[in-house]
Specification:
There is one protein chain. The chain is α/β, with parallel strands linked by helices. The protein is about 30% helix and about 20% strand. It is built from 12 helices and 13 strands. The longest helix is centred in the middle third of the chain and has 18 residues. The two termini are about 30 Å apart.
């Protein structure tokens, strides 16, 4: 897909939560794009706004939470603000979802195969027999052994890794072009995590499926993603090609995240950590929200809030006054800036 026609585009997205004490803003001013067949990782600590961003895209915000500004475009079509019925047709058919806990995504009293068949028949004009054949084929494709036999299993009869594969099969069963994967490897052991990541990258390669991969684990992002967006306190701190962000972070928060990753070659008595905590939504400081924890904060950082600026090499953007000299503002022209920060696609942190 060309730089001018992203599969998904977020333009200055703002999400608000109405409370009796006022309006809270968990996502503010986020502009991102995802191309066909691309995996965009979103990483950050708890409260960064990662999961809220994914929920806003698929229109699954809780009561009292709404998209209050900006745009969400799928294939150039604006989908924020659509009627509920129209959004349901898009959700599942054109955008799939994979959730952190498969037990919450699966009906515990309904066989897994029947759940896939029901989803297929809800969105596609196929017979029951054809839907069953597709369901069995999908279970086989995502690596469920003996799919014909597992078809009749209830979710509790499967292991955690197999349940997550069923959720992936559910997300794929209507052949969506984009999948929102929210912490899909959390609570799985390392070997199963690797299998799930390999499955996603294979689906990207063979089907051209794009993923927005939300994770607190930078190791997962490093292995799976083409590009990574680092969020802090509801805003983008940095976005760029995953290898550049890991090797040469442009934002101090990203650099701090990278230092917290244990490395086999570096023996230490104590793991690095970021001092302090993410600010509460009702206590976001003025200026750069990271400045109370930032080892490089200056006087300006405490007063003026930086906006994401495209880096000189065009390979990403960072919202920091100390970042390398900007070439153009991401917020000045979201479409042009999105094209500028989209990385040339290679071959394949804390929690939200």
């Amino acid at each position: 897909m060309s730089a001018a026609s992203p599969l998904l585009e977020l333009i200055d997205l703002r999400v608000e939560i109405a409370t009796r004490h006022g309006i809270l803003v968990p996502v503010e001013g986020v502009s991102l794009r995802i191309d066909e067949g691309e995996i965009l990782g979103v990483v950050g600590e708890s409260g960064a706004g990662k999961s809220m961003l994914g929920s806003a895209i698929v229109g699954l915000l809780d009561p009292g939470i709404r998209v209050a500004g900006g745009e969400i475009r799928l294939d150039g079509e604006r989908i924020d603000g659509l009627p509920a019925a129209a959004l349901r047709r898009i959700r599942g058919r054109r955008i799939g979802s994979i959730y952190q806990d498969p037990l919450t995504a699966l009906d515990p009293l309904y066989p897994i195969g029947a759940q896939i068949v029901e989803t297929i028949r809800t969105h596609l004009p196929v017979t029951a027999d054809e839907a069953r054949r597709r369901a069995v084929a999908l279970l086989d494709e995502v690596g469920i052994p003996a799919p014909e036999r597992r078809f009749a299993c209830l979710p509790h009869e499967l292991s955690g890794g197999m349940r997550q594969r069923v959720v992936i099969a559910l997300a794929l069963c209507t052949e969506p072009r984009l999948i929102i994967a929210d912490e899909p490897t959390t609570a799985l052991d390392v070997s199963i995590q690797a299998q799930i990541i390999d499955l996603m990258t294979r689906l990207r390669r063979e089907r051209g499926t794009a993923f927005l991969l939300v994770s607190h684990d930078m190791g997962v992002i490093a292995r799976a993603a083409d590009r990574v967006a680092v969020m802090y306190s509801g805003r983008l701190a940095e976005v760029g090609p995953v290898r550049r962000v890991i090797d040469r972070p442009a934002h101090p928060y990203t650099a701090c995240l990278m230092r917290t990753i244990p490395r086999i070659a570096r023996r230490r008595d104590r793991l690095d950590q970021i001092e302090g905590a993410m600010p509460r939504l009702d206590a976001v400081p003025p200026g750069c929200a990271f400045h109370p924890r930032c080892p490089s904060a200056e006087a300006r950082c405490r007063v003026d809030r930086p906006e994401p600026e495209v880096l000189p090499d065009g390979a990403g953007a960072a919202a920091c006054w100390r970042a390398p000299g900007p070439a153009a503002s991401v917020t000045a022209s979201p479409a042009e800036a999105g094209a500028a920060v989209a990385a040339r696609r290679p071959t394949v942190a804390r929690h939200a």
